[in-house]
Automatic annotation (TrEMBL):
InterPro entries: GlmS/AgaS_SIS, GlmS/FrlB_SIS, SIS_dom, SIS_dom_sf
Keywords attached to this entry: Repeat
Signal peptide: none
PANTHER family for the chain: GLUCOSAMINE--FRUCTOSE-6-PHOSPHATE AMINOTRANSFERASE, ISOMERIZING (PTHR10937)
Domain of life, per lineage: Bacteria
Species this protein is from: Streptomyces coffeae
Name of the protein: SIS domain-containing protein
SIS domain sequence ranges: 29-167
């Protein structure tokens, strides 16, 4: 079993621990994370940027306050915020560290990381450390979903059924026609659009697959043009997708969507990425040209 497979399988347990941490009245989370009413920016790179987008949508929809998500290299540092939250698994990403340095003394900052004692912990005013969700694989799986589970729990989402849905997503067999898929379009709505972006990234990183991601209502505005035989259009949201089957199957594609929590749905995508990588003779733990952290000279 690869590191990635083992880390994918550990996610329900990691989610339970992240949720418990978010709900601990004596833990570090309540003071470190945004309070209701604060104007907040959330930043990250790669996977963490997509998780930031999901959190921003969730926080605003919950009425907790205006929340913007930026790639760490693109945040407008002159804009006024009550708090900036940085997401970084390694705590060493250059763009995140540079931004935290630029913001020091001007706005309260919090980093969510997997590594205690990392440079990002030293650079931020507060830290939430999910060391139990750290990974050996370059490709992020349990780290991304665990930090989003933590953030959702902090917003007050119940999440009682999430662990069971995750275990079900791990247990069910992968359909052969998905493993043989040649092109994947992932769709989301609201906060699940960030999850769709992350699903597409996982398939590109681990399997080198042709993947795209869009808000679901944008499917008709261009992505439908690449749907054809061998295409999979995957809905990562709860409930129906708002697409008619014929809009996908007519051009020759397959519409997939299990209607469960998007984090549990992402588990299936992660498993599929590993299966496709293995079928293509690729190493899902160490994709070409990627490193655990981007550290620039």
């Amino acid at each position: 079993m690869s590191y990635t497979e083992a880390e994918i399988a550990s996610q329900p347990d990691c989610w339970r621990r992240a949720i418990a941490l978010a709900r601990d009245p004596e833990g570090p989370v309540r003071e470190a994370l945004p309070r209701a009413g604060e104007r907040v920016a959330v930043v990250g790179c790669g996977t963490s940027w997509f998780i930031a987008q999901s959190y921003a949508a969730l926080r605003e929809s919950a009425g907790q306050g205006e929340t913007d998500a930026f790639a760490a290299s693109e945040m407008p540092v002159g804009r006024s915020y009550d708090r900036v939250v940085a997401l970084s698994r390694s705590g060493t990403t250059t763009e995140v560290l540079e931004l935290l340095g630029d913001l020091r003394g001007t706005v309260p900052t919090t980093v969510i990381t997997a590594v205690p004692g990392s440079p990002a912990v030293a650079a931020a005013d507060a830290a939430v450390v999910l060391d139990f969700a750290d990974e050996e694989s370059v490709v992020q799986t349990r780290w991304a979903t665990s930090e989003l589970a933590l953030l959702r729990a902090h917003l007050g989402e119940p999440l009682e059924g999430l662990e069971a849905e995750g275990k079900a997503a791990l247990a069910e067999p992968l359909p052969d026609d998905l493993v043989a898929g040649g092109q994947f379009t992932f769709l989301g709505r609201g906060w699940s659009y960030g999850v769709a972006l992350e699903a597409a990234l996982k398939m590109r990183e681990a399997a080198g697959a042709w993947t795209e991601a869009y808000p679901v209502m944008e499917y008709r505005h261009g992505p439908i043009s690449v749907t054809g035989p061998g295409s999979v259009v995957w809905w990562l949201g709860e409930g129906p997708s708002c697409l008619a089957d014929a809009e996908v199957t007519g051009p020759g594609g397959r519409l997939v969507g299990y209607g469960r929590d998007p984090l549990a749905e992402l588990v299936v995508v992660q498993r599929l990425a590993v299966a496709i990588a293995t079928a293509r003779g690729l190493d899902p733990d160490r994709p070409r040209n990627l490193t655990r952290s981007v550290i620039l000279p």
